[in-house]
Write a structure and sequence with these properties.
alpha/beta; Rossmann fold; 2 domains; eight-stranded mixed beta sheet
């Protein structure tokens, strides 16, 4: 298929590279910043467009990979697209924002943390939706060429999954950030924790997370928790998280054997 990408950020970069590698032709990259558009267009062997009124009207798929805030004002900056299918890539924005700018529209949401410059993931799940069965069929066919994991998700389902992704991934990454800063300050080797983290994620493929909880909070080991909090006394953000999470774990689980 011939594709136009509107946007030049992380999602546009990673999806663009994946789309190109899967045999589709990206004919244009459009963005407000001419330099950014040219850089990405050069990477994808396509043409750069810095004025949205100049976007080609002959593409099969138009992928709008811009910030959520920009999507809410899309009718102010994107001229109507009467041919082809227009999709946005947001998890928390309704497909209806495209109603005024496209005859055929929908959603192509990659459920993955995408970052420019990093290798393109091979197992990205795509959540799709559309204004009609015919449009959905086009999006389904296109997304199936990019991934073996494609699932229909309406606005409500997609918003719930986006919420879950933020809690499970973005919040966890913030914990990693604070922990790395703690390790640097205390002259500790953070990489020693990586096998632990990798093992925890690996176990999620085998059984529910609730069955894998360990640590002093589930044991009600007040002595150990007090020692930990004394170590964190100079790190108020981590100390607050430690207190809140420990209380949450203790409240969620029945008391277990002290030797766990």
């Amino acid at each position: 298929m011939e594709v136009v990408i509107i946007g030049t950020g992380n999602v546009a970069d990673v999806l663009g590279r994946k789309i190109s590698r899967c045999g589709h032709r990206i004919i244009e990259v459009a963005g407000r910043n001419a330099v950014h558009a040219q850089n990405l267009a050069s990477l994808l062997n396509s043409r750069a467009i810095s004025s949205f009124s100049d976007i080609s009207r002959s593409a099969d798929i138009y992928i709008i990979a811009v910030a959520d805030q920009a999507l809410h004002t899309i009718s102010n900056w994107l001229p109507p697209v009467r041919e082809g299918v227009v999709v946005h890539t947001a998890g928390a924005v309704s497909q209806q924002v495209l109603q005024g700018v496209a005859e055929h529209y929908g959603v192509l949401y990659p459920l993955q943390s995408l970052k420019s410059g990093y290798p393109v993931s091979t197992g990205i799940p795509f959540l799709i939706d559309a204004d009609s069965p015919g449009t959905l069929s086009v999006i389904q066919s296109f997304s199936a060429s990019l991934s073996s994991r494609v699932q229909f998700a309406d606005d409500a389902m997609r918003l719930k999954l986006h919420t879950a992704a933020v809690v499970a991934n973005n919040f966890t990454n913030f914990l990693y950030t604070l922990t790395q800063e703690f390790c640097v300050s205390e002259k500790l080797d953070f990489s020693l924790l990586l096998p632990l983290l990798q093992e925890t994620v690996k176990r999620l493929e085998q059984q529910p997370a609730a069955l894998m909880q360990t640590g002093p909070a589930i044991r009600r080991d007040e002595e150990t928790m007090a020692k930990h909090r004394s170590v964190l006394a100079s790190y108020p953000a981590l100390d607050e998280i430690y207190r809140e999470f420990s209380a949450g774990i203790a409240g969620y689980y029945e008391p277990v054997d002290k030797n766990t």
